[in-house]
Specification:
The complex is a heterodimer.
Chain A: H1 2-12, E1 17-23, E2 26-31, H2 36-47, E3 51-59, E4 67-75, E5 80-88, E6 94-96, H3 105-116, E7 119-121
Chain B: H1 23-32, E1 37-41, H2 45-53, E2 76-80, H3 88-97, E3 103-107, H4 109-113, E4 134-136, H5 143-159
Parallel strand pairs in B: 1-2, 2-3, 3-4
Helix pairs in contact in B: 1-5, 2-5
Classes of the chains: A alpha/beta, B alpha/beta.
């Protein structure tokens, strides 16, 4: 039954999405940034994808467009998952916010903004949620220095004088 | 040749009436058996902290059992788990709220050195923020290691100066 839903979904959305494939029972759809909000709207209203699981990003450093924003949805009625992948360029890493459709997007988008610097247009509150005020940069980007520290408390002088 | 031997006369109650010691030793002896820990617990080492507090290992034997959940009433700060940069101001404030005399135990690899977290989030050892008296290694430490750490700290307390007792006493 799950496969039927995914086939139907693929047919109905064929004009809106790019590549479509089934990976480990999850339908994976490539979506243009401009189409994202419309596709999610239809997923929710037509196919009962009522649970927004997560939004994260992948940093394909060296490729263009550099970032891939990944959304996961679950339909509690059909018990299937769908994954949307949206590529955005480094110069303007912006996608539409899903706050108008899913309240939980408010927090998950904040985390993604913290870690990757993706801007969610329409999210009213993109303050740091896991990081702290004053943190410079986005630590899960591949070009963030691995050992860079941004301490909030000045370090004590070590007995040996190093540090 | 031999002087006159004066036998010790017990007090009428049967107890000795006085004994002599040094004030630092007396204060150290008292303090080493009345450690009131404040558990600053941030991560998975908490499980081992619970194990070492509970019956089979029983830190009560060392007078170090009763956690005080106010830093103002405690004198051993046990930092149990990873410290993140975001939490560092909190740890600093907790330490500053504790009254003298106070000691700090870094419990586990993360509190000691950051452990395997060498990244943007974790402080590579709490001794960058506050002074540490005893380091307990392990990920997490075995209860025996913690008890060894407590006993070493007690030795340290017993041997150290306790200058709060001044020349007026």
């Amino acid at each position: 039954m799950a496969a039927d839903v995914l086939d139907l979904l693929r047919q109905r959305l064929a004009d809106k999405v790019g590549e479509a494939a089934v990976s480990h029972g999850i339908l994976v759809l490539a979506v243009e940034p401009a189409e994202l909000l419309g596709v999610v709207q239809r997923l929710k209203s037509e196919f009962q994808f009522d649970l927004f699981l997560d939004v994260t990003a992948v940093d394909w450093l060296g490729q263009a467009p550099r970032f891939e924003v990944v959304h996961h949805f679950y339909s509690t009625a059909h018990r299937v998952r769908v994954r949307l992948k949206t590529r955005v360029p480094e110069a303007d890493p912006t996608v539409a916010s899903l706050v108008s459709l899913y309240g939980s997007a408010r927090f998950m988008e904040r985390e993604c903004h913290d870690m990757y610097g993706i801007v969610f247009r329409g999210n009213p509150d993109l303050r740091p949620i896991l990081l702290y005020e004053g943190f410079v940069g986005h630590p899960l980007r591949k070009d963030y220095p691995k050992r860079a520290e941004q301490p909030l408390v000045p370090y004590r002088a070590a007995p040996g004088g190093e540090r | 040749m031999a002087g006159k031997v004066i036998p010790i006369q017990p007090a009428p109650s049967g107890a000795f009436e006085y004994l002599t010691t040094k004030k630092d030793e007396l204060a150290g002896w008292a303090r080493k058996f009345s450690l009131f820990p404040y558990p600053f617990v941030t991560a998975c080492c908490a499980m081992e902290f619970m194990a070492v507090s509970s019956t089979p290992y029983d830190t009560d034997r060392f007078g170090a059992a009763l956690p005080r959940f106010s830093p103002r009433q405690s004198d051993l700060l046990m930092v149990v788990g990873t410290l993140t940069h975001k939490q560092a101001p909190v740890l600093r404030k907790v330490y500053e709220q504790m009254c003298e005399p106070k000691w700090v135990m870094a419990f586990g690899a993360c509190a000691t050195s950051g452990g395997f977290y060498q990244n943007y989030a974790a402080v590579a050892g709490i001794d960058r923020i506050i002074p540490v008296d005893i380091y307990v290694p392990g990920c997490p430490p075995r209860p025996e290691t913690v008890i060894d750490g407590i006993m070493k700290l007690q030795d340290m307390i017993a041997r150290s100066r306790h200058p709060i007792l001044t020349e007026n006493f």
